[in-house]
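To the structural biology subgroup,

Please find below the input and predicted structure for EmrB/QacA subfamily drug resistance transporter, which we are adding to the shared reference set this quarter. The sequence is reproduced verbatim from the submission form. If anyone notices a discrepancy with their own records, reply to this email rather than editing the shared folder directly, so we keep one authoritative version.
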Amino acid sequence: MFKNKWYILLFLLLATVLSPLDFYIVNLALPSIQHSLKSSSSELQMIVSFYTCAYAVFQISGGRFGDIYGRKKIFVIGLTGFICSSVLCGISQSSVIMILGRVLQGVLGAVMIPQVLAILHALFDEREKRLVMALYSFTFGIAAALGQYLGALLIEWNVFNLGWRVIFLVNLPVGLFALIMAVIALPRQETKSSEQVDYRGTLLLSVGLISFIYPLTTIVEQGVQIRTVLYLFVSALSLYLFFRVENKRKKQDKSVLVNFDIFKFKNLKLGVIVSFLYYASGVFYLVLGIYLQENSHWTSMEAGKAIIPFGIGFIVMSLCSSMMSAFFKQAVLSLGLILYGLGFLLLLYTLYNFSSFFFKFNLFVIGCGMGLTLASVVRLSLSNIPVQFAGLASGVVNCGLQIGSAFGVAAIGSVFFGIANTVDYTLAFAVVLILISLFLLIALLLSFNLTRHLSSTLLTLSPLRNFDQNEEKASE
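Predicted structure (tokenized):
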């Protein structure tokens, strides 16, 4: 029974929910963590941003490891490590150990999640993938709907007198169940590559992305310094060297971390850019809780409940996205971005004309837009990607999403804290909403191009065929 692909989908999604849940669940627990561990404000910022940064950095590496060593094996390793690092966070007695645990959570979550998308990509056909991607998006809706509220609720209940620690330790029983099911049910016979891991490429990419994200997270407290410019210079140099090294290794027929030929698929290239711009809105869920507690003086429980309409909208539209994509075809991505941006503009108006009903309604609209967009951008980005590159492609898409989120938290978050500390929280929140809307506008314009491209491939020879033929000739 457990070998059925729909049962496999069920526990893969159960494991998937752990990673985004840990992004949301920690936000409202930060004051309790600060009091318990005597953390500074910068250490609190690292607890949030370093998790996202580590998750983003290892997205591509995680997907590539699955291609080389087998997706089941890497998924089991990633999930086991994620469970252990969650326990480390739960028992930590200092901010340093907490930050280390969060970094490990991010790294191992990034190793685990691309395997889920790659396994689903291989198990289900194109018709089934509409429903599968809707359910995949649904898991993020569950995390969004329950994350912050669940964190506040568990702390208030003080389960087993653990306080904030339970928000990490709850991953232990859930993760162990998913791990046991994965060992039993995931197929053993997988296509593996005989290539070796490109460690040099992994190092250069990691240094490049970390050097880009880290200075953005510290710019509020430390300002723009010489070392900020140096970090960005190191980032640009590392990414340039990464590109050169990967192309050189490919010409020498050596294994590469990223085969840049995959970007010959225009839908993947555009999809990654849209993913980055769209997921930069991740800063909203951080500043919303701060705004409600610091400006409106809501309790953490009240702030946790405030996000529920968003989560409901996310879940509803995730479940409806399969039906909507069947009707609107590729245009469903543009529709999702329009709905998402409209929600932020409506919320901007509500800030200065507050109404409890419209505040909740706006959050519901935002949730609907995000749920519809996430399901669509992942599916359309991976459309027509060869199975042997599914892990790499899914890692690239997820990297675009998480780098966008990390960039939003770091860069737009810096704008928020800068204005909040010098003017007021309402203006700071309003500026964040405007910046997010501008990012979504650019993403919307690019989505039109993506839609036209995918529509044209239905009338002409798919580049997939030429790509596959070239790969077959090369292998011969």
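Summary notes: The chain has two domains: 5-187+257-462, 198-256. The radius of gyration is 21 Å.

Regards,
Lab coordination
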